[in-house]
Amino acid sequence: YANFLENVRKDPDRAEEYYRRALDADPTSAITLGNYANFLANVRKDPDRAEEYYRRALDADPVHANNLGNYAALLFIRARDDEARTLVERATALDPPPDLELELAFYRYAHVASQRETALTDLRRLIGDGVRSAGWDLVGNVDRAEQDGHPDPGLLEDLARVIADEAPADVLDAHPAWRSLPEAGGQSPDDQSAT
Fold first, then answer.
1. Per residue of the chain (195 residues), what is the pLDDT tens digit?
2. What one-character-per-residue DSSP string does 154-175 give?
3. What are the b/e assignments for 91-120, b being 16+ CB within 10 Å?
């Protein structure tokens, strides 16, 4: 119900009341702790409290892939890249659902220079398969990556919009780095034209 109040009714005060009631009823629910942490990070814009609840969520369930990925996103925004990378690796090793796999690939592309090429290939495959994480707010990660000198901020911004299902995938075709990637079938656009 707290999720409904937050996301559908857009009533953050009542949503927080119900998150607290749910946590009073079961203070060790990894799902509720993680959802409340997301609420604190994305709605209340309170990263300190959000981090506290992400830690509690992971204490309750250390292999909850969504909580690992969401906490990593917050840590990247807070410039704690080593910790964030570790959480991304842990979440990735758990064979996450496609929408989380997409988010993790985005974080790697945005923040891990040594993994940008493989992350972009993963993003191409997942986006080509129609995977999205509708409504997920990636702006903080975009801003942080741009502050750190990301080499392709325009592509990064468009990826965030496509992933959040706020723009069609074809906006990515305006970026040379995206166009040069192999299609889902394995051939780059240049290879396909030669056949």
1. 988 988 889 989 999 999 999 999 999 999 999 999 999 999 999 999 999 999 999 999 999 999 999 999 999 999 999 999 999 999 999 999 999 999 999 999 999 999 999 999 999 999 999 999 998 999 999 999 999 999 999 999 999 999 999 999 999 999 999 999 987 654 444 444 443
2. HHHHHHHHHHTTSS-GGGGGGS
3. bbeeebeebbbbbbbbbbbbbbeebbeebb
